[in-house]
Amino acid sequence: MCGNRAAACGLTRLPDSTETVLTVTAPDAPRSPAPEPVEVELAAALPPPQHRLAGVVRSALRVVPVLLLIAAAWVLWREFHKLSFEAVAHAIAGWGATEVALALALSAASFMLMAVIEWVGLRWTGARISLGPVLLGSFLANAIAHAIGANLLISGAIRARTYERYGVTLTQVAGTTVFAAASFGVGLAALSGGGLLLASQAELDATAITLPVARTLGAALVTGALGYIVLCALMRRPFTVFRRSITLPDVWDAIAQLVLGVVDNAIAAAILWILLPAHGPSYVTFVGAYAVACIAGLISSVPGGAGVFESTMAALLPSVEVAALAAAFLGYRLTFYILPLMIAALVLAVDAFRHRKS
Description:
- This protein is mainly alpha-helical.
- It has one domain.
- It has helices spanning 38-44, 52-80, 85-93, 96-124, 131-148, 151-163, 170-198, 201-204, 211-234, 251-273, 283-300, 308-316, 322-357, and strands at residues 8-13, 20-25, 239-241, 244-246.
- A two-stranded antiparallel sheet has the order 1-2.
- The two termini are 37 Å apart.
- Mean pLDDT is 75; it is low at 1-32, 34-43 and 45-50.
């Protein structure tokens, strides 16, 4: 998916270089004066409206987020409407300094790993930039985009602003943004699929996921992740999807996406898992529910999947005490969303002030 409705994305190979890059060409339609919602961006990539299937998909892209929000609100009310502030505060007090320190350390490690993924993506597009500036650019892009929403659009704009001074082109920024998004998707599929396949019957009994569903969904997710590697190895010529010409990364870049994406998602899931009670679900089982909740949050187009993510997790983890689950959600949002957003906003403000002064 392209993060900007005013640009048509395509991956191609430069004639004078062996590097694979993502090229951006302007369509015939005039540029939109303001960013569109994610579902409108997706709809813009579909075939013309005269196709009946395209019209159905366009309608679904507008209706599904609303339905998910309504369902999320109902689930959250059902699970938490009897919950008292004292119970949540008691659950938070039970974390201890070790759990809080681990949550902060894992959050920092996740953002570091996102920077490594971004650095690999920049090299894939042909940009030669040291890891230091990428640490800053990746942190700003991910911290702000995760909390605000419209990840591809927001993160791409922040990357363009940050890397412009290092000679990185808009084409390379677009390629890097798509590369990072693909790493997240492939890694999440492989991690959660493996967890669902490895979880025992006793572990699954602590969730709302039945054994047949776990095995079927797990096999599908792992097959999809491995299929991406195979596709990258076999399909070296450009192909067209929704009128976009795409050239996939080579097999080694795809393997790097898979490995880094798995580790990154494993760390992010662990932030929430360590804040749950010790008698909660095993980590192997937990990542399966975490992936389903992440996918629901992404489909909803709500910034950070707020509400939809929590309601899905609550429905899939009925054995976890409600107060402990609510406390874990608060800790997860604070360490992985709110605190990074505050730091990123401060860094951007200082950077803008310095540039205006110079």
